Amino acid sequence: MLPQLIVGGLAIGACYALIALAMVIIYKTSEVLNFAQGEMAMLSTFVAFTLLSERGVPFPWAIALTLAFSLVLGLMADFLFLRPAKNPTVLGLIVITLGLEMILYGFAGWKWGPDQRSLPFPISNVEVYQVGAVAISKVSVWIFLTALGIMGLLFIFFTYTKLGVAMKATQQNPIAARIMGIPTKKILSLTWALSSMIGTVAGILIASTYPLDVNMMMDPMMKAFAGAVMGGMTSLPGAVLGSELVGVIENIFGGYVSLEFKSVVAFAIIVLVLCVRPSGLLARHYVKKV
User: Fold this and answer.
1) What is the largest CA-CA distance in the chain?
2) What's 80's DSSP letter?
């Protein structure tokens, strides 16, 4: 039973990791905690559902169009909500993202209603691979491989591309990056676009195994945030590690103790980790001198 729970935890933890990566990318660039990340992914997933179910668009084209929509959504979120704010406080930025979250949530509820739907997905959620005593659903395997592939592409992007290096430079020192000729405002907008696209992939993967409704991203969003905090809000590997740990731990607790309270355990562990390492497992703790 334990190997089965660990495998299931790794699969859902991979989805949490994508959302956590999306949040960390924005936080590293602008120190903004984007609490609208889940609703941005939810809205884009509904767009994918509309294209697939109502318009009959082939799956690859529907995903490509959905990613394009999420890119524009990320750019609009920065341009319409973050740019107009003049020297906002950290609390002000949090309120702005919460306001964006409620706008997107309300729009999705008005457009698609509260009913649960099923996202057409080309991979079966019923068929399984049997590895010894462990049964792994085909969709779980593809979720994990897709998430792993995106993480690898992000590593290559931030390490070997000029745009990725410019994003890292903006994250480390915006003033120095601007002096060196990097258009930091454009980089910030592209960061929101990239973050929105990554979150959308997570939303589509989650909707492949769970019902699609306006509340679908609330629980994964909080789990991903917990994973990012556990691993370190300034560390991409930390966000992945923390999210996978959250997925595995909550699955084991749900299997052996209680399904109703498995979400509580993840946050209890976060509290314990932060008491020992306030910056998270893999992030460095910086002290500002004033």
Assistant:
1) 59
2) I
Compute the C-alpha angle 126/109/123, nearest 5°. 20
3-class DSSP assignment, residue 131: strand
In whole angstroms, how far apart are CA 63 and each of 49, 174, 269? 10, 33, 36
Number of H helices, E strands in the chain: 11, 2
Residue 244 lies in a domain: no
SS3 call for 285: coil
256, two tokens: 């052996």
Q: How far apart are CA 127 and CA 32, in angstroms?
A: 41
At residue 75's C-alpha, the angle toward residues 71 and 80, to 5°, is 145
247 within a domain of the structure (yes/no): no
3-state SS, residue 121? coil
The whole model's pTM is what?
0.92
How large is the average pLDDT for residues 45-65? Answer: 94
Angle at which helices 218-231 and 2-30 cross, to 10° = 80
Both ends of the chain: CA-CA distance in Å?
Answer: 53
Mean pLDDT of 94-104: 93
Res. 284 pLDDT band, cuts 50 70 90: low
More confident residue, 272 or 216: 216
Q: Residue 228 corresponds to which tokens in the numbers above? A: 């990012």
The residue-averaged pLDDT of 241-261 equals 86
The answer on pLDDT for 275 being more than 60 is: yes
Domain boundaries, position 140: 2-217
Q: How many CB atoms lie within 10 A of CB 90?
A: 10
Residue 264 lies in a domain: no
- Residue with more model confidence, 179 or 64: 64
> Alpha carbon 139 to chain centroid distance?
19
The verdict on residue 266 lying in a domain is no
Average pLDDT in the chain: 87
Structural domain count of the chain: 1
